[in-house]
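To assess whether ligand presence alters the predicted conformation, the chain was also submitted together with pyridoxal-5'-phosphate. Input:
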Amino acid sequence: MVANKFSLQFAQELDQKDPLKEYRNRFFIPQHNGQDTVYFTGNSLGLQPKKVKDYIQAELDDWAKFGVEGHFEAKKPWFAYHEFLTEKAAKIVGAKNSEVVITHSLTTNLHLLMVSFYRPSKTRYKILCEKKAFPSDQYALESQVKFHGYDPKDAMIEIEPRHGEHTINDQDILDTISKFGNEIAMVMIGGVNYYTGQLFDMKSITEAGHNVGAVVGFDLAHAAGNVKLNLHDWQVDFAAWCSYKYLNSSPGGVSGMFVHENHENKPEIPRFAGWWGHNKSVRFLMEPGFKPMPGAEGWQLSNAPVLGMAAHLASLDIFAEVGMDKLIEKRIQLTNYLEEIIQDISAKHTDKCQFEIITPKEEKRRGAQLSILVHGKGKPLFDKLTEQGVIADWREPNVIRIAPVPLYNSFEDVYRFGVALENAIG
Ligand SMILES: *Cc1c(COP(=O)(O)O)cnc(C)c1O
């Protein structure tokens, strides 16, 4: 690396040239000793857009003014509130509007989708997933398997990195799918692995799954708002994501659900039903006999939690304004810059400490996140980062996860992270 790249001046010049630099001002940046923190945990909880308050206040005002009549009289009638979010969310995941609905929470949605799409039989009941998936996904998958009377030890095929490697070989996924072939009922993988930051080739995985007759779904918690998604074109059967990571929509915020058009207008698909998935033109007739809405909306159970949805809408409006393409362009630059600085520091201090970035190097195999394996120093080094106003994420036994987020992180943040890291090495 050119020596002067790791300088405040160089970083500030990059910020000056950044067409998205103004967006940082749209967010509240947590403070540390009167200064902006280096907030690199947007992959865990995105920052609060300053406008969120106005969006929520508008609904509080309409609630005060109209009471129950707000369902129809509110400026954005609550009866159809989720519809205000659909198109913007659909753009982020590369879907048609009818394929997306914003509702419930992530793990709930995964279960609801698996109830419909994991339909094991005596000969075809296996689930192919990644080893070390996010714990909630592991629990959800195992409980689905048990619910159908199978043994997770037998039914779950977990793909893991080859010996001595940290990330999963893409070809190994495809080969395992062909190997187990018609034993696989469902392929369910996280689009971006939460621990290593590895981005999977969802298009090829979907194709391979379909070739053996399996359904294919993805958990996009770490992918939505981070990487390019084309769920419709890739023919993905189903997907779900949360809105509070890269999508900045409040802790525990609402989730998104995708069901491919191929499964639209099929009321015969088994599902757990609730009144909000019922044909909306007759919903309030409260008649017996569930008639699902066509498309993803037919998987809704409950009426919209409007306050949480308002927070999500505030953020989606920013995404709609910027567009994923520009965000991705900046994200690549930011993450590459961060990688260079870490490697530069690591090379300078091999005597004291070594950093190994376990996230794939190739642009198409990662998003914003870098996961650093800290050899030689562990938690104390992380604590020293925290003392200097860096907010990062520590995972036992020795991994630091950091994610510079293109909407609000700057190149100067990356520089300041480098300075803090060098200080922390001591
Ligand atoms: C963050 C995350 C979750 C969290 O699920 P909730 O239902 O929102 O608590 C689940 N799965 C993955 C892969 C995640 O990254």
